[in-house]
Automatic annotation (TrEMBL):
Keyword set includes Transmembrane: yes
Protein name as annotated: Uncharacterized protein
The UniProt record lists the keyword Transmembrane: yes
Keywords from the named record: Membrane, Transmembrane, Transmembrane helix
Transmembrane segment boundaries: 61-85
Length: 111
């Protein structure tokens, strides 16, 4: 499960970084320039609805003044990172029944 999460978070980060870096463009709406990024075809002009523009504004201008949110975020990210990327110190192999790990064939005498 940890390996799956590692790769998922890596792919999520790389795709997010590529999305905000490679597809940046702007729209001028009512004299206001809106700069954002998302994958689009440069040859085909596109526009956004008012709801989409409001969502872009909310996603790009999220501000929280609550000290609790800041404290939780500052604690969560390091703890999550340590949990996700730490390697187990001691690996033990458990046998479901005591003694089965020591079973062997009977001794053989060559004559």
């Amino acid at each position: 499960m940890k390996n799956s999460i590692r790769y998922f978070l890596l792919i999520l980060f790389v795709s997010y970084a590529a999305g905000i870096t490679l597809f940046t463009h702007s729209h001028v709406i009512n004299g206001v320039t809106i700069v954002h990024s998302h994958p689009y075809n440069k040859d085909v002009p596109h526009s956004h609805s008012t709801v989409e523009l409001d969502l872009l504004h909310l996603l790009n201008h999220f501000v929280s003044t609550s000290l609790v949110v800041v404290a939780i975020t500052q604690l969560f990210i390091p703890l999550f990172s340590v949990t996700l990327f730490s390697k187990p110190i001691d690996i033990r192999y458990h046998v479901p029944y005591f003694g089965l790990a020591y079973l062997r064939a009977p001794p053989v005498l060559f004559s």
